[in-house]
Write a structure and sequence with these properties.
Layout lengths: L8 E4 L2 E4 L4 E11 L5 H11 L3 E7 L2 E9 H13 L6 E10 L7 E3 L20 H8 L42 H7 L21 E5 L7 H5 L4 H13 L4 E4 L4 E6 L3 H11 L7 E4 L2 H7 E2 L4 H6 L5 E6 L15 E5 L4 H7 L11 E6 L11 H7 L6 E5 L11 E5 L2 E6 L9 E2 L7 E3 L9 E4 L2 E4 L9 H18 L5 E5 L5 H7 L6 E4 L1 H12 L6 E11 L5 E9 L4 E7 L2 E4 L2 H5 L1 H13 L15 H13 L3 E4 L2 H11 L11 H8 L12 E3 L4 E4 L1 H12 L4 H27 L3 E5 L6 H13 L3 E3 L11 H15 L2
Parallel strand pairs: 4-7, 9-16, 11-14, 13-17, 20-23, 23-24, 25-32, 27-31, 32-33
Antiparallel strand pairs: 1-2, 3-5, 3-6, 4-5, 8-16, 9-10, 10-15, 11-15, 12-13, 13-14, 17-18, 19-22, 20-21, 21-22, 25-26, 26-27, 28-29, 30-31
Helix pairs in contact: 14-23, 16-18, 16-20, 18-19, 20-21, 21-22
């Protein structure tokens, strides 16, 4: 009988024996995500199956293999290596050098080899695998109900790595010495924990301790003498059952949890966390529980169950029992499944057991817009006022990583926040680039480092509006520079002079600096992840971006390449009264649009004005009339705000994008008509939405349902995008369109824009690997800066 179909070999009592052929040697170097994913054990077992000799080791650049035996067996080895690697591995590059046999008589795993200036692609954290969950649920298993169970196929990776190569001494698990049982597994090639660096058990690994508000933070001795995990978890679940709030030290930081069906608990969490309306994420017990509370498309299920386990945006089911306080004014909610044994055990002790909760609120452990908390001491200081109880563990978190957010469109995952499960896997740019630091934008910040042919995006940093978040930026930058051995030769930044990211870039001494316009970066980001070169039509719609004319852009049509862009059209400028105040108070933008449409002395009398104090209305009218403390904007986000305010949905917002989210939420299918728009000729063209505003007012006065108005508004924006793209195609002979910017997170709009463009013969490119919002800006900055440095502006 042949072994794996390999000619020249046969099984003899379970061993593979060579029938004939002289030995040769091959030196193989593998790069990609090949550390922390069971790659060396896979190579070891494959070599033994094929009776090949040599060694495998981790290096700072990947995995090095030297292997010898008959040529046919070596060919089979390479074929399996390329085509059937471990499930979590990603081979980016594989080189083979032929050599003379050296007479090795066995195959071994050698100690890791540090290499100066070399780097390896680090694996993201991986959700608990089915085998480990089985171990946790088996009362006969020594890891029964142990919340830190993992193997080579799952568990922490980038959150615990301090440096490469990926070996236990260079992780936060170095504080735990393996017991004899774990050591035996670690050194057993037949065990799935063979060289699993975070390997641990209740005897030798991390432990959990539950404290109550006012208690001191546990000392190391408290973990050593802690009660069993099962007892601690029973106490934690009891607190959640009573409607109390629990702070949980998770994989990449603390999380705040409460019963998602308990209105009082969710409301208390909102008040204590200072998060008035912004949706909370949920963690559901299992996929069946998700189906009870949300509608699932065929593509949603595999995304929820994927090793990345992101928060997935889903349409809420009516009557689900989930508190409306979870996502006020929203018909979607973000749901994820448990991704660590600790999370699983909060819901039930085994797969067959009845759980206490269908879903828990599981939100970032922080206050307002601060970074997620990672250390026990920090949690004791910052979260005690929020949580009734704190569930600590003593495995340090080195890399602060929040949960990722995604949704599906056209059957494909679309990342909206790129963090746990995805970071630090890089974007392959296809060709070598300079080593660059791109500092990103102000909101939803990420930064990007480039090395070799890779763009390494940071995890979601957040809104760079306070010193704590800037410290998080610096901390993560230091970590990723170390892991990937990057020493930037240049710095790219957003043109907005007030962004902390731009100020940070400007303060880096001696390095060349490349300013990249915000919307050009959006389109370049979409081009980079779709491997596009040459010129494209770029539609960049968002809320705020600093323009080259000093105004606030946000409704932009560009003819763009990676080297530069021409602004061919944009939404007609309006005055934005009060700057940031107008972002927080959409009624100000509505007033500006009405004055621009009807004239300063003919602003229609609408129900909206009854919500606004007369003195405030008078003040803003004066600001607009005299153009005091106003800036001009072409922002599409502000157009959405204006319409939401006009129809009475939202005159003030509590988080960015709230008005637009609620406007999308009331749209209804089956409405295909829209409103008129116009063009102001010139260079660039201005897309004039005054006819739309006038029509919205007419519909309001005619008592047309707000859902109909919202749908017609979205249809109009989609039609306008199509018309402008047609005009640009006629003049430039371009038929590739890249859509980017936070506005294209709106699924109602995106569906209609994509359908319209494709129906007109355009090739449409969207984001998938990186967010369309400002979380993708840094990738665009990096690739533009690389082109500028290579070829000039």
């Amino acid at each position: 009988m042949r072994a794996h179909g390999i000619p020249g070999y046969t099984w003899v009592r379970g061993m593979v024996v060579t029938l004939s052929a002289a030995s040769i040697r091959r030196k193989i170097r593998v790069r990609g995500i090949v550390q922390g994913v069971g790659f060396r054990p896979f190579v070891y077992n494959l070599a033994h199956t094929l009776a090949l000799n040599g060694y495998v080791l981790n290096s700072s650049s990947g995995v090095i293999i030297e292997i010898e035996g008959p040529e046919s067996a070596l060919d089979s080895f390479l074929d399996c290596l390329k085509n059937n690697p471990p499930a979590l591995a990603r081979i980016e590059d594989l080189t083979v050098i032929q050599a003379a046999a050296e007479g090795d008589t066995s195959f071994v795993i050698r100690d890791s080899l540090p290499e100066a200036d070399q780097f390896v692609l680090v694996s993201p954290d991986v959700a608990t695998c089915a085998d480990c969950w089985d171990d946790v649920c088996d009362a006969r298993n020594r890891r029964y109900q142990y919340p830190f169970t993992n193997c080579t196929n799952c568990g922490p990776r980038c959150t615990i790595i301090r440096d490469i190569p990926y070996d236990r001494p260079l992780t936060t698990m170095s504080a735990f010495s393996m017991c004899s049982g774990c050591r035996a597994e670690y050194h057993d090639p037949a065990n799935r924990r063979f060289h699993a660096q975070p390997n641990a058990c209740p005897v030798c690994g991390p432990a959990i301790v539950l404290t109550h508000r006012g208690d001191v933070v546990p000392a190391p001795a408290d973990f050593a003498g802690a009660q069993s995990s099962a007892a601690t978890l029973r106490d934690a679940v009891g607190a959640l059952r009573r409607g109390e709030i629990l702070a949980i030290k998770g994989l990449g930081g603390f999380q705040l949890a409460c019963d998602a069906s308990n209105d009082r608990a969710v409301h208390a969490l909102r008040e204590r966390k200072k998060r008035s309306d912004k949706p909370f994420a949920l963690m559901a017990r299992d996929i069946a529980s998700v189906e009870k509370i949300c509608e699932l498309s065929p593509a949603d299920r595999p995304l929820l169950l994927s090793p990345q386990r992101p928060i997935v945006i889903l349409r809420r089911r009516a009557g689900s029992g989930i508190s409306m306080e979870v996502a006020p004014g929203n018909n979607t909610i973000g749901v994820m499944l448990p991704y660590t044994p600790l999370h699983h055990l909060l819901f039930r002790p085994s797969p067959d057991a009845d759980g206490d909760f269908t879903a828990l609120v599981m939100t970032s452990g922080n206050i307002s817009d601060e970074p997620i908390v990672i250390s026990n001491q920090e949690a004791g200081r910052r979260l005690e006022r929020v949580a009734d109880h704190l569930l600590f563990h003593n495995r340090d978190i080195h890399m602060r990583v929040d949960d990722s957010v995604a949704r599906t469109f056209e059957g494909q995952p679309r990342i909206l926040r790129r963090s746990r499960g995805y970071v630090p896997h890089p974007i392959d740019l296809g060709a070598p680039v300079r080593e660059i630091l791109a500092c990103g934008a102000g909101l939803k910040n990420t930064f990007c480092l480039t090395k070799d042919r890779y763009a390494i995006l940071s995890q979601h940093i957040g809104d760079l509006e306070n010193v704590e978040t800037l410290d998080f930026f610096r901390e993560t930058l230091a970590n990723l520079k170390t892991l990937f051995r990057v020493e930037p030769q240049a710095v790219a930044y957003d043109l907005h002079p007030q962004y902390l990211s731009s100020r940070f870039a400007q303060q880096i001494p001696e390095l060349p600096k490349v300013g990249v316009q915000h919307h050009h970066a959006h389109i370049a980001s979409c081009m980079a992840e779709n491997a596009l070169s040459g010129s494209v039509i770029g539609v960049a719609f968002d809320g705020i971006g600093y323009g080259t004319d000093g105004q606030i852009w946000g409704g932009e049509f560009l003819v763009a390449s990676l080297r530069g862009f021409e602004r061919r059209a944009h939404l007609r400028y309006i005055d934005l009264p009060g700057g940031d105040a107008a972002v927080r108070q959409p009624w100000r933008v509505a007033l500006s649009y009405l004055r621009d449409t009807f004239g300063a002395d003919a602003v229609p009398d609408l129900p909206l004005w009854r919500q606004i104090p007369p003195q405030h209305l008078s003040l803003v009218s004066t600001m607009l009339q005299r153009r005091i403390n106003t800036v001009m904007t072409s922002s599409c986000g502000r157009l959405f705000d204006a319409v939401a305010a006009l129809i009475g949905l939202r005159s003030e917002v509590n988080f960015e994008g709230q008005a637009a989210i609620e406007l999308e939420a009331i749209t209804q299918s089956g409405i295909t008509d829209g409103y008129c728009f116009d063009f102001s000729e010139g260079s660039p063209w201005q897309l004039d939405m005054r006819p739309l505003i006038a029509a919205v007012v007419r519909d309001l006065r005619s008592s047309v349902a707000t859902s109909v108005i919202a749908s017609r508004f979205h249809n109009t924006v989609a039609s306008a995008i199509l018309e402008v793209c047609r005009r640009i195609r006629a003049s430039e002979a371009l038929d590739r369109v890249c859509l980017s910017g936070g506005t294209f997170q709106n699924m109602y709009l995106l569906e209609r824009v994509v359908a319209g463009l494709r129906g007109a013969g355009f090739h449409v490119f969207l984001h998938s690997q990186v967010p369309p919002n400002d979380g993708g800006i840094s990738l665009g900055q990096a690739v533009v800066a690389n082109q500028v440095l290579q070829h000039g502006a």
